[in-house]
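Consider this:
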Amino acid sequence: MSLFAALLLAVSPDAVGEIRHYVRSNSDGSEAEAVHVYRKDETTLEVVKMRARCTNAAYVIAKLNPETWEATHLSGGRLLPGAGREAFATLAEENGRIVMTFDKEGRTVREQVAIGSRPWHLYDFDLASLSVATEHLKDPQKSLAFSLALVWLDPARPDDMLHWLGAAQARYTGTKNGLISYAVEGPAFGEKGGGVMQIDAKRGHIVSARFGRPNHAEYKDFRLELTGMDRGAEAWRRLLTAHWEGCAAK
């Protein structure tokens, strides 16, 4: 076993209660959006995506499989004043398929796609579940195989949003300055290709990633950078409350 593998196994990856602050953007920094990830308990992630205060913010809650760290159920919603939440869509596994359910113009819409390989992660969940998986790597110098699905909100194709992207692989390329680096590639990233990803050598969570394929329609590519960390339910509530605090009613 390598030194870094032993280090990851020796340090508990218990991140329950931790809040990680990221910025997702294009590679040039444009279209920047804050992505806040809260590990509420061992198998529950809450993720809020914000731009300017007093504007719409997504609020997603996911339940994870503790063996694979796949998100077996995701509830999509929006953040409300007072740290409230309005749910409007779900993604869940059913008989080897990912099923998305949401209401549209007074009717319930279901889209589904077959799971081609495991473990899979939702790309537009901004690597939140993948980061939990990298925390639990037994040997970070081995290649990490995973697959990606994507909800792509394209106004030109409103009835075709859920997609299976395919397989990907993160190949170890070295360790420096407390960061373990990977080259990420595979058919999941299409013609635009993968890129690079770094995880924290002690804790295993994702610190940065740059890929050629975007995960939202308004982006041209993908960059994710860890900008800070907090801890605790009270800090999480303060973060959510502050987004709408003092805003004019709409």
In short: Residues 56 and 78 are 7 Å apart (CA to CA). The helical segments are 3-10, 128-135, 233-244. DSSP finds three helices and 15 strands in the chain. The first helix runs from residue 3 to 10.
